[in-house]
Amino acid sequence: MKRRRSLSAVLAAVLSVMGATGAIAQAQTQTWPTSPVHIIVSSGAGGTADILARLIGEHLARSLKQPVVIEDKPGAGGNLGAAMVARAKPDGYTLLMSGAPTHSVGPHLYKNLGYEPMRDVPPLAMVAAGPNLLVVNASLPVKSLQDLIKLGRERKLNYSSAGVGTSGHLAAALLKRSTGMDARHVPYKSGPEAVTGVLSGQIDFIFFTVPSLLPQVEAGQLRALAITSATRSALVPNVPTVAELGFPDFEVLAWYALFTPRDTPPDIVAKLTSGVQKAVDAPELREKMLKLGVEPKYMDPAQLTAYVAAESPKLGKLIQDSGITAQ
Asked: C-alpha dihedral over 269, 271, 276, 278, to 10 degrees?
């Protein structure tokens, strides 16, 4: 009888502690946030992801009534920053700004990431997406996409990118696979360096963001041949899509999203997604995004999870077919 009473007392104590712990956790969730929120950007300062993080961060800071601090942690194809967030405490104070490089591409390029992106850094919300513009040096004897393909079948060309597994790299790889043209990939450390390679004449072509190329296109230094979105861009309405030039399934977009550490409380995730959606819907933010060459594109966690589930296998097959490996 005494033993049963002792067990009952222990059980009651455990349940009491559990109840108190749950109550504390619930109270913490209700008062969250009480300190600054940090957004880790998986790419370099001054890039599109960095600028988007700052734009979204300004709006989030107002809605959360706490500062939002942006930290750039580039390296290893974005996986350095993503791994940091994967190891962070799941309390809503550390987020990741990234996209396809870490969540759709990385698992197919890197064998030992040390974490599983979609499991350990799950989606919070997509915020924007944008196409790449295909351009060549104006001195190259091509006037159209078909001219480039023809030249690439006659001799080996080369193309630059901001790095292995970027959307520009994959767009070029898809063009090669779709057309049978021959071209060698020359990865650079940054987008501006990759564009400079084309401007100097050392590189034949590049797929890159529209605003970064538009001044050189308008100056006659680069010639725009096509764009990688399913529909034409308002920034370059006279430039056709690759799809309308004979490759109907061709679409490669750079997309940007926020992610959280696994097991972040659902109530905190809900607050964050609500704040992000309000930011993405803000008219003044839309205008700033368009100047970056991207369009506001909100997806909640479930929608973004489904998007990656559809995109990742396609990119994985392209990576495998093209023999792309991490360098």
From this structure: 150
Task: With a cut of 60, say whether residue 2 has pLDDT above it.
Answer: no
| Residue 161: HSE in the Cβ half-sphere, 13 Å Cα cutoff | 19
Q: Is the peptide bond before 33 cis (omega within 30 degrees of 0)?
A: yes
Averaged pLDDT, 73-78: 87
Contact 280, 60 (CB under 8 A): no
How sure is the predictor about 23, in pLDDT bands with cuts at 50, 70 and 90?
very low
Instruction: Tell me the C-alpha distance between 140 and 95, whole Å.
Output: 44
Cβ(133)–Cβ(236) below 8 Å: yes
Name every residue whose Cβ is closer than 8 Å to that of residue 70 and which is 6 or more positions away in sequence: 38, 39, 41, 50, 53, 54, 57
- CATH of region 131-245: 3.40.190.10
**Identity at 67, one-letter amino acid code:** P
Helical ranges in 47-183 per DSSP H? 48-64, 79-87, 100, 106-109, 117-120, 145-154, 167-179
What is the pTM (predicted TM-score) of this model? 0.85
Q: Do domains 35-129+254-322 and 131-245 have the same CATH topology?
A: yes
Closest among 294, 249, 318, 287 to 241, alpha carbons compared: 249
Average pLDDT over every residue of 42-69: 93
Q: Domain 35-129+254-322 carries which CATH code?
A: 3.40.190.150
Length of the chain: 327
| Model confidence pLDDT, tens digit, residues 244-277 | 999 998 999 999 999 999 999 999 999 999 999 9
Query: Cα–Cα distance between 205 and 161 in angstroms, integer?
Result: 9
